[in-house]
Queue: 3 jobs
Job 1
Amino acid sequence: MTKKSAHLISHSHWDREWYMPYERHHYLLTELMNDLLDTLERDPEYRYFHLDGQTIIIEDYLQVHPEKREQLEAYIKAGRIIIGPWYVLQDEFLTSSEANVRNLLIGHQDAAKYGVISKLGYFPDSFGNMGQAPQLLKQADIDTAVFGRGVKPTGFDNVVIDAHGSGYESPYSEMYWSAPDGSKVIGILFANWYSNGNEVPVETEAAKAFWDKRLGDAQKYASTSELLFMNGCDHQPIQRDLSEAIDTAKALYPDVDFIHSSFEQYIDALKKQLPDDMVTIQGELRSQHTDGWGTLVNTASARVYLKQLNQLGQTLLEKGAEPLATLAHLAAGKAYPHQLLTHAWKTLMQNHPHDSICGCSVDEVHREMITRFDKSKHLTETIIDESLQVLAGQIDTASVASWPKDSLPVTIYNMTGWERTGTVRIELIVAKSYFKEGPNPPAIAERLAQLPLNLDNGVLLDDQGQAISANAEDLGVHFGYELPKDKFRQPYMGRRIALTFEAQQVPALGLKTWAWVNEPTAQAEAANSPLNATDSGMANAHIAVSIHADGSYDITDKETGFTYEGMGVYENCGDLGNEYVFRQPEGDIALTTKGLPAQVKLVENEPYRVTYEIKHTWLIPVSASELFEEEKRKMVPFRKRAASRSSELVPFELITRISLDQSGKGVQVSASYNNQAKDHRLRVLFPTGLTASTHLADSIFEAAERDTVPAKEWINPSNAQHQHAFISVSDGSQGLMIANKGLNEYEVLRDGKNTIAITLLRSVSELGDWGVFPTPEAQCLGDHTVEFAIYPHKGNVIQSGAFASAYQFQSPWFHTTAMGQQQGTLPTSYQALEWSGSSLALSAFKMSLDHDDVIVRLYNLANEAEQLTLKPSFPVAAGYQSDILERRHDSAELEDGLIRASAGKCEIITYAFQHKQS
């Protein structure tokens, strides 16, 4: 009989902030690390400590104890403190595809400073695991992942469940885990949680009781004689007497080899014994085959404002600062700001741990997150502004013969992966006057205010001389300042105007320039618009919208002829849950705006855009009933709470603006409201009327296909799920896609209509989990605005290409103005990279730290191979196949300046281009 080995891995799962504010946890972290260094120093038998897979712990510790750097570094290099591979332990589903990549990349970069990194996919407490994790890990040379949730036999509240029966996804705690592209890693489930070897007794009798149970529990699931015991838990102090405890265990169980181990040592031993009947689990691990209460998916709707700020911060980095800085480098040789971008990413990622971005911490934590979002955003916007300023100076506006010399060129930048058309609003200065610092210069302001602008006679011309319909608005005189690189700040007063127009066919990863001509002689006839408004709707060449008296609307797809009826009804119900879990009161019937009279008025009717405003004045319960407060104090489990909604009502006013662009293939919607109610949930409903058993949701580097009807084990009445940019239901002939900005929770209802429900607000009053932690700010009282868009499409969302509209909906436009005309190296219309592949999405356009290569990353959303072509518009010295760590691999040959390749199903592809300096 094979002798069993009990591998004890010491660790402390370090939630950087959670049920206490960050600095309280930070204080405890310094104690933990000091104890760890002392223990390693005095006890050579205390061999290893796993530093929770996140390098930020090192930063946080050295912030307080910089004098410990040398000692810490020595133990890391000696392999006794194991670090990486992540920067933070993120929530995978609430952080973007690129954020997950940067987390791994920056974790590797930080660990490289110490020369050692843990090559382990460490997901101890993620609230479900992304399906593409195996592919990401394999690209980083990681072949094993450990995780705590997502697959049976783990139970909620860390309960060990009997492993008998056939309902388990894996009979063992060890399995193979495969990504949609086929990449496969070894998966190890913490079947007895990551605390099953915590606080090992030294005293003989207590140790016997401890190990009799723990050895038995581990053997229920283990596929080999190598048993895993995690010596630690959340914020667990170091067990200083572990060596003595191991000696006690060895004396009690001579047939078991007790080892103070590392994951590397444990996994090496495990690999030698893995059985032939290991199960392969596929894709996302979201606890699909459980009762549905322990998935913690409703963290996707806790404190929605955090998700909105995160989506904006990620997008400004991915589709703003990085590609624009790359363009500025390629066009003008401006140094790429690697360190600044890393700092912006790190500041943003400090909000990405699973108890932070999930919104499931105490109020103080989430207040501090707002500051971090702002800090990252401010730095990101500065990088964007600097890059745009450089690019503006490179655009050759003097060569456009149709633009008068005193015209004002304006350039629109599209940093998404596809050509883009849409309505933009830009502000520009038509006249400015500088002044020295001192008293307020009222005379300058008065003179500028008197300038005759003749905006009604102005015209916007493209670079072919064609007039474009535009609305010009005088914004008056405003103070501004410039910060030259070679002298003191320059304050000025400037006369501003706003231009609103449809920017048509702006190239992907490129720019297009127009000119504002403020002369009567320059008047030109704009082309007729296919957009029109009616008393109750609007239509263009692609879709028609009809608005009803209750504010709902029908949308007809002119390409398929199919009409989606009753869109945009709002639903409100009670919520007795917490920041982790939604729970509707027993017997509660949701309120809706269906049949509720609304005020509908046309507020914008321009050739480029039509907008209606819909106003609902609604009465909803003020909170849960009084019983709810008593139940929370007594810690009545959320599933057993008997409270209902209050009979007292408060006004809930909704202002919805629904817009259709001249060339739009969908309608864009914003909804604003002032929430004065508590303990409730607000959703918006889109009945598709389509027959389908599955749907596609945008997830990490994939459009995940999910069952609308959950598995038979699922008893939770709600089947809410995560999304990023979109959710789509299709019957194969036509489909409906709902795009969003920072609205990460949806549900496809089992109501016979396959209604898509998007969560807009969830108001709750407590953290939940293991104690009583009131979180009054999680009620989200006050003003809110949310944005979403509705796109009908042919076929499915991938085949039709509609997914690109969702990604563009999340991405802002950028613009610059150039005073007068100038010569430059960039044409008025420019594209940095041409590429093709109908099912592919462009994920990143940036530069690598190691070689200053231009990095291009794409991923295939389809379950079949797709042909890819790449044609850089910049000179290339060499091309390389790369990976998510931005390393150079095999050469990528360019034939006639073009790369041709095949993207495998669901494959993530990265190329590195060495820029040829002119």
Job 2
Amino acid sequence: MSGIPEGEAGAALRALLTDSVVGLAVWDTGLRCVWVNDALERYDGIARERRLGRRPRESLTGDTGELEALVRRVLATGRCVTGREYRVPTAPDSRRDRAFSASFVRLHDDGGHILGVCMLMLVVTDRRWAGDRLAVVSEAGTRVGTTLDVMRTAQELADFTVPLIADYVTVDLTEAVRLGEEPLDRLGRSQGRVPKFRRAGRASVHAGSPESLWLNGEVVYVPETSPFMQVLSSGRPLLHPVLDPSHEAWLADDPARAAKIREFGMHSLLILPIHARGVLLGVAVFVRTSNPTPFDDNDRLLAEELVARAALSLDNARRYTREHNTALALQRSLLPRRVHGGTAMEVAARYLPADAEEGVGGDWFDVIGLPGGRLALVVGDVVGHGVNAAATMGRLGMAIRTLADLDLPPGEVLTRLDRTFIRLTEDEEEGGGEVATMSATCVYAVYDPATRRCTLALAGHPPPAVVHRGGDCSFPDLPHGLPLGVGLLPFPTAELELPAGSLLALFTDGLVEERDQDIEVGLRRVGRALTRGASSLEDLGTAVIGTLPATPPPDDVTLLLARGL
């Protein structure tokens, strides 16, 4: 207790032991109980001497096997568990157990070493969660929607609400949400239509969720006469405190679901629409089996708050997925499907996008035929990710094709491309939009098969690799020039001799840059790969990409290989 005098700290610990209303117990890394306070004994009736030195299954009550598994999981993963229901049997003639809310957290010392797991237990009144609803909803904000992935968010909602609210929970999303598309179904306007749903999340007090008829990702059957359709049509939650399959006419059309209800003793049902900004995203279903208490309005209110929070996360994830898919489709549509070197060169290209969490980048490449049988080779990289980077890449790619038609020297081509880039940035600023990309790099090279010379200019871009017929690989020391968008100096043009059979490799920095490594390490790796030889340039490109330390890479990778004929 930093900042508290030693004597006061001891008094505070004694108060936790004797006067606290929170039940506390601590198990060490061997799952032996090493500390317990008086409140816990008052709550579950187990004396301290019966608990100390014993495992959770021997020192708790109720479903002790599952509780010990939970303690073991918290110890192994470090992920705390909150709101776990802990039921204590009361008098033999009582019809109901006493309910508590238990939370579990892993303990560490000042050096980060694991000490064990602490359980904190609070009394829950008959009006469950009424007093700490705000705390539960706040905790859900940290546990649900941790990523921009709709399927994972749905699973997090299911995991968080079992057994907090229900013994079995399913989350089904419309197909449009799963694919990141714009949902077509407005809330409460299904008009008898059944949207296509897929199971996105499921959780149960039983391992493996055996109650579920569908695995995650599978299409879910929704009977037209079921209460699920009632929720879709009305846009309002449905509280069904007592679920009796013998009195539910709609189950006659759904025998598989009826069998599951009977097998697992499902006796209480709560169905909520998942919607955000007026659009239907899916349906969440809460069921009670082993918990004998029927759902009530307090349960419904808490479930609505948790689902509403999750719905915003799901909609944000859907929008992100849509933007990412749009950017990826845009980038792929702007890159050449195939490259041709004509009679001047044999060419091959490889493009490897960064992983989905990093987004879509602005790499591009091109091969352009010029008068006199010459060939222009282009590789560029727009800084940034997403739709803006892909769109800027596309505009620069079209601009450089137009400039190539003017048959200008490489340095002049980059100078004019620089001006184009500056105008694009200014247009974005004047339009009031967020400028997501502020610079770009590019290499523009022109190969003349008559002289076997290559003239090129760099705009802040890595120099190419040259592999001569003898197998030696070098990275010529060329003037790099400033990145596009600076607009201060012209771009100097350099010239390379490429004897017959020489190989030229143009690439973006994603191929050679490695985290926590000097760029020279990446250059040597690529150089070794280029000199190993291959039956074709296509195979060589695949071999070079295969040397990347991580796949997918943290940044987009582009490689353009060209060999004189």
Job 3
Amino acid sequence: MGTSFLNIVILMFISVCAVALFKRIHLPPILAYLFAGVIAGPQLLSVFAHPEEMHLLAEVGIVFLLFSLGLEFSLPKLLAMRSLVFGVGLGQMVFTTAVFTSVPLFLGISMSASIIIGGTLALSSTAIVIKQATEMGILNNRRTQLAVSILLFQDLAVVPFLIAIPLLAQTGEVSIALALGEALLKGVFVIAFLMSVGKWLLPWVFREIARTRTDELFVLTTILIALLAGGLTYYFGLSMALGAFLAGMMLGESQYKYQLEADIRPFRDILMGLFFVTVGMQLELTVLWNSLFEIIFGVFALMIVKVILVRAASLLVKTDAIDGWSAGVKLCQIGEFSFVIAALATTHGVLTSEQSSLIVCMGVISMALTPWLMNNSVTIAKRIVNKDISFDDGATFGDAEPLSNHVIICGFGRVGQSVARMLKMEGIHFVAIDMDPVRVHESRNAGEPVIFGDASQKDILLNANVESAKLVLVTFDQVEKAKQVITQTRTITNTTDVMVRTKRDYQLESLYNAGANQVVPELQEGSLMLVSQVLHYAGVPMSRILKRVRAERKGRYDHMHGFYPGETTEITYGTEDKLEFIHAVVLSEHASCIGKAIKDIDFSRMRVAIKGLRRDGNEVKDPDEDAILQAHDVLVIAGKPRRVERAERKLLEGS
């Protein structure tokens, strides 16, 4: 046990040093993990003489990676980009796989191995391209969106390969069509079962887990769901990664998506790093040394052919030449999923270790060249086309522009909702973040842009586009949590202002020291507004009142401190009976009010007010009294809690 522990410490030390070194020379961490694996492998330091011992743990990393990919799989986004995804993406995958399958087949390699080799070489690196594009700020321009469309189809194409490899290993050369047919039948059954579970069971599970407000339970449940789904598909003889992908896809449209992604990321990154370390350990240096010329020649031939084939595929939708060539340059490397497929194929005996090592060697070299190619993709495309180009970074393929110059509201309670209504009245875009599952469900049903998640987590803020936001507003009165939000915001951007609301000003200095631009203590601000009204009625000119208010805020409420306490000093903010709730009622097909006009329903007798009506995803702000209620309408009503509850029952059940 002591030796194993020491080996793990040595491996972690090598990995940390490698990642730090590669980061300094602007190379992706994947290459650092591969390098660490080579150093620690049996051919050099021999930290682990048998890398296959870590195979199961590394495979869990693949499970989490596919789970995250499933979370990113958005059906609406896919439909919005369908001409690119299923046009250019499908064309690129078919063309490239066919070309790179024919070469090894011509050299006498078996059909099974040739297909796997063709598929691995056709894939590109989603992780490197997306990360590099994000850092360069070009993720939403036209040519990058073309590349993203191809990457999306490639990510989907990984799943059939993962299904087919174990079956190809069993059938050999007997019948590839039979193997794929069997995989298809099993896949249809498992997908149908998991989709059923995902529709009826998982939302309820996560709703109940979220209500406990226990972070550890939420994380553990996320990991358990991913592993259970992977174990189910593995039981049916399919890949564990397929089950994880389906589980992620089922949860990808839920309100918990961003929090799930944030929770799984640390485990995914660590275990995926371990996976790439094991890939590096399996790299045969003798193959690299003996075939160095062939590998280098193969890399350049591969990259040139992939650039040409991406451009050819882009002609299917008549894409601009500059965009097509630029996308090809971005995608000419071998992807991280190629290593996954190659490792799985080697494990099942479809590929030899030498063939797998050749793919890994070519992948490492092509990935190392990717950052430079990404930075110069447009320049290279211009030289190929031999014409000038005007940058049009605002043109996107998609259904909506990403938010910018918006307000992020952390906490969507009464204060957050009041701010949101005022922002909406002024036409200012906002996105809210809240951890209350019921509140998020209610507000999302009413059409509010609310994300379920912990605002103090970096990934949640990134999903709210904090780097391009105008303001981050913290509305909850939890000082330590507010400081975490400020810290995470400052690690992402220094240009976005942060405003914090507190009940009292006891923590004013500490919040400013944490990086807040403005702290608004509720009690002092309420007193200040009262004072301004008093001064106005006392005849003080408004200009002097505004000057006094500004000075008081600038002096951090110096004159508002200190009062004579008494027995009734404690401030009461009201009772529940004084609250007014807003509630979204989703009208099912069997609701008793279906087919009735709004005027025929006595809302005044129920003592609730209509705030809005949503139909087919569109908001009707002031619905006409003659409007007929239809199935699947969302009626937004307001009133005291018990009255809202009675009104909902009457609308749905008629009693």
